Amino acid sequence: MQHSICSVLLIDDEALARDYLQHSLEDHADIALCYEHCAERAVELALRVEATVVLVDLRMPGTDGFTVVRNLRADPRTASIPVVLLSSEQDAEIKVQAFAAGANDYLVKWPDPRELVARVRYHSGACVAARQRDEAFASLARSQEALRASQAALHQAQKMEAIGQLTGGVAHDFNNVLQIIGGNLQLLKLIGGVNDNARTRIDTALAGVERGARLAAHLLAFARRQPLQAVVIDPSAVLADMEDMLRRVLGPQAAIVTDIAPALWSTAVDPSQLHNVILNLAINARDAMPGGGTLTLRARNIPSGAPELSETGNGDYLMIEVADTGKGMAPDVLHRAFEPFFTTKPTGQGTGLGLSMAYGFVKQSGGEISLKSTPGQGTSVRIFLRRSEQAPAHEEETQSAPLFGGIETILVVEDETAVREATAELLSALGYQVLQAEDADHAARQIEDGADIDLLFTDVIMPGRMSSLELSELVRRKLPKAQILFTSGYAEGVLAHEGKLDPTISLLQKPYNADVLSARIRHLLRRRKAA
């Protein structure tokens, strides 16, 4: 209910007082009068009419004016409302008692209407000004608190971005080192002539390379620098395929509840990376429930404007939730949970990259991720992915081919000498005719000079005047039937747009092994023959 700026509450046991005030105020539209004869209701009425000044008679049966003043001052909601005592007695001692009780003014009945209006406006204006001041201070406090929260969020975002840039750069160089080690070890196995003990040692070292590759992949995922092969998927099918795997991961002690809503919306995402994210979240849930518990895999359509999207954004989203009934996280742990290498697990039982990898993947996919946890009650991770209006894509099946099945000509372009030579020897051992170039400029000269190749295998980022993309365009013009396979420690924004690869681009991530390299090359060369 809206009131005039001067809201006057009159408390007097005689209706004559009401009549006098109504007559005195009738020409003043900005002053609203409320009359009450019951002094016991003073606080209640002052709040109801949002009084900006209270006029109260001093002498009333039962509760007198002094008591009304004390009651108003005792309640924090009415303590600041100005109170004017009305009395028929012109007595200095009574005035002293009135001001001692908390009155703001003392009027002898009945003053001139002009004086009455002036005093009412004066006290009401002071009350309104005080309220505006208090609201301004409260608003300032809220703004400062919001600013502190925004600064903290900005600081956290800047810290995560700085960590991401560092880890991305480290992972890129680390992948090249792994490729040198892995490529030479695989070459040793292919060349042969090693005894069983040496072969076992080589396999152990290759397993270490694969472990390092997974570590680098997690770092790149957190840094949002992994190349995503996003396709439109049916999430129901992807999640249904994961149920058996989750049961193997969690073991017999944990129960799994799948709560997948019907008719889930499609979403554009890299299915293999989504698979890895859910697997990592399930492993975290298993470790949080050493004595057993329940893991819930839930999926819902969340339409635009739903309460779940209050911190996410506009638009329709698919929500995937992984929740457990484990130990939960304390607030200080929850605040750092997405940081890479941060873990509460004992040494050797976790890298601290599971949640950071999930964070980076979801952000790079254009979605949002939220983490809620209560100590002793469990943890919930919710992933929000944007809805796609397109129909789910069908995966192209690739058949494996024997490692020794190729006789075509391949041009290997790589600025890292050790990587290039190991890869060239590996392809030669597989039967291919191999040409080498240290950068795109040298490779372009070979093409211009008439080199006839079936496939270009090129690193993405190399020094030199010509880029790998420009080299690929030259190959397409000169040798339209030749296939192109890119490789990189990470896409680095050259091939990827907003972290997503064009579906027409073939990219093999470093470090790659002989099996994967051979399979990708045979797949592309079969496509060439079919064309």
TrEMBL record:
CDD domains: HisKA. InterPro entries: CheY-like_superfamily, HATPase_C_sf, HATPase_dom, His_kinase_dom, HisK_dim/P_dom, HisK_dim/P_sf, Sig_transdc_His_kin-like_C, Sig_transdc_resp-reg_receiver. The keyword Zinc does not apply. Its EC number is 2.7.13.3. It catalyses: ATP + protein L-histidine = ADP + protein N-phospho-L-histidine. It holds the Pfam family Response_reg. Keywords: Phosphoprotein. Residues 169-389 form the Histidine kinase domain. PROSITE patterns: HIS_KIN (PS50109), RESPONSE_REGULATORY (PS50110). SUPFAM superfamilies: ATPase domain of HSP90 chaperone/DNA topoisomerase II/histidine kinase, CheY-like, Homodimeric domain of signal transducing histidine kinase. Residues 7-124, 409-525 form the Response regulatory domain. GO terms for molecular function: phosphorelay sensor kinase activity. Gene3D superfamilies: 1.10.287.130, 3.40.50.2300, Histidine kinase-like ATPase, C-terminal domain. The modification 4-aspartylphosphate is found at D57, D459. The keyword Cell membrane does not apply. This is histidine kinase.
